[in-house]
Design a protein that fits this description.
The complex is a heterodimer. Chain A is an alpha/beta fold. Chain A contains 20 helices and 23 strands. In chain A, the strands form 5 sheets. In chain A, strands 11-10-12-13-15-14-21 form a 7-stranded mixed sheet, with helices on both faces. A 6-stranded mixed sheet of chain A has the order 3-4-2-5-6-7, with helices on both faces. Chain B is built from 11 helices and 12 strands. Classes of the chains: A alpha/beta, B alpha/beta. At the A-B interface, α1, β9, α9, β11 and α11 of A face β2, α2, α4, α10 and α11 of B.
């Protein structure tokens, strides 16, 4: 089996049907103008791969502007899908196949295509005006600029318009279907099932049947174009992946997170109130949850980030599960209310889908630079648990875990997702609802104090969680608030010793939350170097470790899902290796925490480019370090 | 008995109690720590005396406040309560009221809390018409931070932070509320127990957001700000009490009244000069807010005239009722099957 399509297989002939080459994995990147529908195209190709049973991982990459000026580099939108016949961990470092719908898409992406890679271009857009716009003096299709690649020139717009000539559709509307032509062509090249896409198009445009039909026609035209022309000598097959037994679906991080909240509502038997304000890349959580009110979910689009979290906290005070969702800038605004949640010791799920910062930063790009904000970004000693999912599908379990902690320990919990996890997708082994954990809570219903009254700050001796009596409970009327509480009674207290005790109690409550021990993956058992990550870098780190091991070197991998509190065995794990490498998409925030907490001088490897790590770059970093340690 | 039997649609869904209640039932065991002579005491007593008349279960009443002197209010009420953070009480109360239709939710706030740091939440809560009652204690000064000017202080006010006089033009809170599409707004004086109680009663009966502005004296940093409205001989010339269905008339002998002026505005006239039939008859239920707005403009910062009572009380669907109705509709029409949701439309099975 070859591991790429770059060579194009046996290129001898023009025989039909095209020869079939089997591959174990392929990375395809669809790139075009923001208005070209590349996200939809990629998404559909992904669904076809999923339906076929491949393992897959995707990475959308789009500008923050809804419609940047047409045909410009800032307006380029792309979608990369990696699919394989085995379990893969990342959306792929580089595409094997690049589909470029215009000169801007070519210019912006060609550097990522390795020599020998397949390039499919829509020639209709390669006119002088468009070429000049992005700085091509001459048409790169006409000279030897692209000599290193297998170039397929296809007049997609013209062919699409031709296919739709009899539909009565205007020229412009017909031309807009060219993304489906591209999808059809790629579907033919990779032997993808097509029924799903046709069904999807008919459902999506159910109210505009002529548009639905035009898209289906364009899709078929692309497929038949591959089949009937002699331009493509070879087609490729990627067999279904041998994943663990069970039923799978494809899912994005934001959808998985929203489903996790629905499941949390069901498993806790509490109504959910999501108080939120739209922000990229978190808005899809609001969109998704607003569709599932039948599960007792209320979604409140507030006037601002602060009102969103305040409404969620108000609902929690009333005995509901309060949830708020945002990105880094929103967390900055919500900080004071998170502090109120810490002080009033009420459950609250705070979701931060991190994006590039500071300030407005890179709204549509990914980053892991909110860790210290999550950890410390409030006034006073204000500890909150932090949970970080490691992949799109993992968001489901992470939401359940974060909710469990919030409800059991009566505390705000920060769930740190990021743009890569939120918008990326992968197959998800659908859990059996019967196996989901029970998150039921018990509200206080009786007086609990020695004097026969109710003390809201009497704690469970094991969890240190305070008694939670909701309004409407007879006889337990009490007042809470942001002022310091007297230990036990919860009355206002300015007592120096009481404050010291309460600060330590709040800290001890969070520190005492049991989280699973850190598991280390070291197949050889001989590794002297550990690579430790957190959050969405799991995929690239894992892929890099596989590559390092393929070189015959030993490296151990561990991944933190609980950032606060850390697993109890973390210190021992760190001290068990000669070197610990911590790759992060920030300037070393976890590394700072590890050094401070454990006095272990970890090696911080950082990159803050708005894009996930590439497996190749981490492979190189790790290889150098492992070789250095082994040589020492 | 239900709140509907009691004629309190604003409290529909809140359980009632058959046990007689007294004001002292609403006093918490916490020592009240406002300055001696503070108007807040009077308001607290008025609220504690008024609540028993509603006949609600005490545990189903919640007071939410922000930050400031008045925001200590919940600590002194033997109900449920939360003393939250600056300006955010309406947002917290929105979440609570939406999640819990069985609660009577009250917000206690001040001119700084509601109109400065919390201005955004206030206007959006009012336009949504969330079913909660907002008591805005307006003393025209920042008390808890020791005497800086507030968004209702008169322009030119000399304070610690404005030694050469403040440059801010003040809000008229009733006008602001009307601009924010409020469905109920009233005003009362802290010293006028009867008038305050009447406005509170109507606010409680109203289903939707009710804003009650209470002129409240701060004896330390803005003492006597409303004295002209309390002095015999002076007050009658300035206070214009509203009563639904009655001509708007005031003065020791009822010698003044309110009449229409140009462009939909109102003005004060001597009844003897214009004739009784020219007086505006107060209609708090008028859908168009222009009339209530014109009434609100009669009250000027210098207190030459101050309109009290209920300016506007109109019926409009509430945010929280509708949000709950959507959830109920979804529950009635769509199956809440988690397994089906998780599986979605396109799955594949690995054997």
């Amino acid at each position: 089996m070859s591991t790429g399509v770059g060579g194009g297989g046996d290129a001898t002939g023009t025989t039909r049907p095209a020869a079939v080459t089997k591959l174990d994995r392929v990375v395809i990147r669809f790139a075009g103008d923001s208005g070209d529908g590349m996200q939809l195209t990629g998404d559909r190709f992904t669904s076809e791969a999923a339906a076929f049973g491949n393992d897959l991982s995707t990475m959308p990459n789009f500008p923050a502007e809804i419609r940047a000026p047409q045909g410009t580099i800032p307006g380029v939108s792309s979608f990369q899908v990696h699919f394989a016949d085995y379990d893969i961990l990342t959306p792929g470092d580089r595409p094997d196949v690049l589909v470029a719908m215009n000169p801007a898409a070519l210019k912006a992406n060609i550097a990522d295509l390795p020599a020998g890679g397949t390039l499919i271009v829509n020639t209709d857009e390669f006119i002088k005006r468009n070429l000049t716009k992005v700085g091509y003096d001459a048409n790169p299709l006409d000279d030897d600029t692209l000599a290193a690649y297998q170039v397929h020139q296809v007049a997609m717009a013209t062919l699409t318009q031709g296919a739709l000539a009899d539909t009565g559709l205007g020229k412009k509307d017909a031309e807009r279907c060219k993304n489906m032509f591209a999808l059809g062509l790629l579907s033919w090249m990779y032997h993808r099932p097509t029924e799903g896409t046709e069904r999807f198009l008919r459902e999506k445009f159910a109210k505009k049947p002529d548009i639905a039909e035009a898209n289906v026609l364009a899709f078929r035209a692309g497929f038949y174009y591959g089949e009937t022309t002699e331009a493509f000598a070879v087609t490729y097959e990627v067999a279904p992946a041998k994943l663990a037994q069970g039923t799978y679906r494809q899912i994005t991080g934001n959808t998985a997170l929203a489903y996790g909240i629905v499941a949390a509502a069901q498993q806790s038997r509490l109504p959910v109130l999501l108080g939120t304000y739209p922000i990229t890349p978190a808005s899809d959580i609001l969109h998704e949850l607003s569709k599932h009110k039948q599960f007792g979910i209320t979604t409140f689009q507030a006037e601002d980030e602060i009102a969103g979290i305040c409404a969620a906290l108000g609902a929690s005070y009333g005995g509901a599960l309060g949830v708020t969702s945002t990105s880094g800038p929103g967390i900055a605004l919500k900080s004071e209310t998170i502090g109120l949640g810490v002080m009033t010791e009420l459950p609250l799920l705070v979701i931060d889908v991190q994006r590039g910062g500071p300030s407005t930063g890179l709204p549509t790009k990914t980053e892991q630079a909110d860790l210290l904000q999550a950890m410390f970004g409030r006034n006073g000693e204000s500890p909150v648990p932090i949970v970080a999912p490691q992949s799109p599908a993992d968001c489901f379990a992470a939401a359940l875990e974060a909710t469990h902690i919030a409800l059991k320990y009566r505390t705000p919990v920060l769930l740190l997702s990021d743009g890569a996890v939120a918008n990326g997708s992968e197959p998800w082994l659908i859990p059996d609802v019967e196996d989901l954990p029970d998150l039921g809570v018990e509200f206080a219903t009786e007086p609990n104090a020695p004097d026969g009254s109710f003390w809201p700050y009497l704690r469970d001796p094991e969890t240190l969680a305070r008694a939670w009596a909701v309004p409407g409970t007879p006889g337990l009327q009490h007042r809470i608030g942001g002022l310091e509480k007297a230990d036990g009674t919860g009355n206002i207290s300015y007592e120096p010793d009481n404050h010291d005790r309460m600060v330590r109690l709040r800290q001890a409550k969070i520190d005492g939350i049991p989280v699973p021990d850190l598991e280390v993956h070291d197949p050889s058992g001989k590794a002297r170097v550990l690579v430790l990550g957190w959050g969405s870098s799991y995929g690239p780190i894992g892929a890099a470790c596989r590559r390092v091991r393929k070189l015959g070197l030993s490296v151990a991998q561990a991944h933190l899902r609980n950032l606060n509190p850390f697993p109890a065995n973390l210190g021992d794990v760190l001290r068990g290796y000669d070197k610990v490498v911590v790759p992060e998409m920030n300037l070393g925030q976890l590394a700072l925490l590890l050094r401070g907490r454990y006095l272990v001088d970890v090696i911080s490897y950082t990159k803050v480019a708005g894009l996930p790590f590439k497996a190749e770059e981490l492979q190189n970093v790790l290889t150098d370090i492992v070789k250095g340690v082994d040589a020492a | 008995m239900t709140t509907i039997d009691l004629g309190l649609p604003g409290l529909a869904g809140v359980p009632t109690s058959d046990e007689p209640q007294k004001a002292k039932d609403y006093k918490s065991d916490q020592e009240v720590r406002w300055c001696p002579g503070c108007g807040d005491y009077v308001v607290l007593n008025a609220v504690q005396s008024f609540l028993p008349t509603l006949g609600l279960k005490r545990e189903n009443i919640v007071f939410i406040s922000g930050i400031g002197c008045s925001s200590r209010f919940p600590y002194y009420m033997n109900t449920y309560g939360m003393h939250s953070i600056h300006g955010r009480a309406p947002a917290i109360a929105t979440g609570l009221a939406t999640a819990r239709p069985d609660l009577s939710v009250w917000v206690v706030t001040g001119d700084g809390d509601a109109l400065s740091i919390g201005g955004n939440h206030l206007i959006h809560t009012l336009r949504r018409n969330v079913n909660l009652k907002i008591l805005l204690f307006n003393n025209r000064i920042y008390g808890l931070t020791k005497g800086q000017y507030s968004p209702t202080s008169e322009a030119g006010k000399v304070t610690k932070s404005t030694p050469m006089g403040s440059l801010d033009y003040p809000f008229n809170p009733v006008s602001l509320a009307l601009g924010a599409e409020v469905s109920f707004v009233g005003r009362a004086l802290d010293s006028d127990r009867k008038g305050l109680t009447e406005v509170l009663r109507q606010a409680a009966e109203h289903r939707g957001s009710a804003l009650v502005e209470i002129y409240q004296n701060c004896p330390i940093f803005n003492d006597g700000a409303f004295d002209v409205l309390k002095e015999p001989g002076e007050a009658e010339q300035r206070l214009i009490p509203l009563e639904h269905g009655k001509p708007v008339r005031f003065g020791a002998e009822g010698e003044y009244g309110v009449v229409r002026a140009g462009f939909g505005s109102l003005e004060v006239a001597k009844v003897s000069e214009v004739g009784e039939e020219e007086l505006v008859v107060h209609d708090a239920h008028m859908t168009d807010p222009s009339y209530a707005f014109a009434l609100s403009r009669l009250s000027t910062q210098d207190l030459r005239y101050t309109v009290t009572g209920v300016f506007r009380s109109v019926s409009r669907p509430t945010y929280d009722d509708q949000a709950r109705a959507q959830v109920e509709e979804a529950k009635a029409t769509r199956a809440a099957n988690l397994g089906d949701l998780l599986r979605g439309k396109d799955t594949w099975t690995v054997v």
